[in-house]
Design goal:
The complex is a heterodimer of chains A (about 160) and B (about 150).
Chain A lengths: L10 H11 L1 H6 L2 E5 L3 E6 L6 E3 L4 E2 L1 H20 L4 E2 L2 E8 L9 E10 L3 E10 L8 E8 L1 E2 L2 H8 L2
Antiparallel strand pairs in A: 1-2, 2-7, 3-4, 5-10, 6-9, 7-8, 8-9
Helix pairs in contact in A: 1-3
Chain B lengths: L2 H12 L5 H5 L2 H6 L2 E5 L2 E6 L16 H19 L5 E11 L8 E10 L3 E9 L6 E12 L6
Classes of the chains: A alpha+beta (about 160), B alpha+beta (about 150).
Chain lengths: ~160, ~150
């Protein structure tokens, strides 16, 4: 009788461990709130150091971009779970629909809508927390799939 | 656009202020650690290697998002200085192709304005580390050029 071993970590665990291992994402304050096969949702708190317009306190487009780039990678990780892959971004287009208000946390949602053998296709959007029907940004990205054992990745990351 | 910014740009052009002052007024640009090196009015944008911009810890490699943020901010400052009468650029869209891993090294950016219209500017941006003809990423972005900083 054969059966798949029960994965040690849930999708949410994997996403959170991944963010912890990425220094820039820790700096952005990314908190993964939900992770299932279809989508990942995370939060980036408003921080003074991420402001792009000092006159208005609006977050820099680059900060929203970096946040969503990370959430997109997590969506691929959640989709391939319980396998583990490193997924460098191939390309990413982000449209800034409106400016997120000063002091508002930003929610990022990413959905991996197609997984081919080597490439993952991801849709992304960002909202102000509590205003999830009016996106501040929407994007499309592709990620390369590079399969490695997760033990290797996390062990090396501690060195 | 705010008058203090117009005054600052004029001061940079006349040499009273270093161009770095344009970075220092933007918290996110300071967070990334962007440097501007100027030879006359020719600017080179530098992202010195920094632990806080790391992505993949095993290579180690820079976070693609940090590289993209650097490229977007470089383009914003570049476009701001291209305009005779500066108007505040706001990012409409930003599109990037990653060509090589951004290693844990200093990164440089070069910008080229493809089209500067009345309301929209289009900028091409290239980032490289080892050789200028081996870019790690290429990007293009559209910016809305507005006189009023309070309106999107």
């Amino acid at each position: 009788m054969t059966s798949e071993p029960t994965p040690k970590y849930t999708r949410l665990d994997i996403c959170r461990r991944f963010v912890t291992s990425v220094r820039h994402s820790v700096e952005l304050g990314i908190d993964v709130t939900d992770a299932d096969e279809q989508r990942v949702r995370a939060l980036m708190p408003w921080q003074e150091k991420l402001v792009g317009n000092p006159d208005t306190g609006v977050l820099h487009g680059g900060a929203v971009f970096a946040f969503l780039d990370q959430v997109g990678g997590l969506a691929v990780a959640a989709r391939v779970y319980p396998e583990f892959e490193i997924t460098p971004t191939i390309d990413f287009r982000l449209d800034h629909l409106r400016a997120p208000a000063k002091g508002k946390n930003v929610v990022g949602v990413a959905e991996c809508y197609r997984l081919s053998e080597h490439v993952a296709f991801v849709r992304l959007s960002a909202f102000e927390e509590g205003q999830e029907d009016e996106p501040v940004a929407t994007g499309l990205a592709t990620y390369m799939r590079m399969k490695i054992p997760s033990e290797n990745y996390f062990r090396k990351s501690k060195a | 656009m705010s008058d203090p910014l117009k005054t600052l740009i004029a001061a940079c052009r006349s040499g009273e202020q270093p161009y770095q002052a344009l970075v220092e007024r933007v918290p996110y640009a300071q967070f990334l650690g962007i440097r501007i090196e100027a030879r006359g009015e020719e600017l080179t944008f530098v992202l010195p290697k920094a632990d806080s911009n790391l992505g993949n810890p095993t290579l180690p490699a820079l976070h693609g998002g940090a590289v993209a943020g650097f490229m977007e901010q470089a383009a914003l400052i570049f476009l701001l200085l291209e305009m005779g009468e500066p108007r505040l650029p706001k990012t409409i869209d930003f599109t990037i192709d990653y060509l090589r891993a951004g290693l844990f090294k200093d990164t440089f950016v070069e910008c080229r304005v493809t089209r500067l219209g009345r309301r929209v500017g289009n900028v091409n941006i290239e980032a490289w580390q080892t050789r200028r003809d081996e870019p790690i990423a290429i990007a293009r972005a559209h910016f809305l050029l507005s006189d009023d900083s309070s309106q999107p």
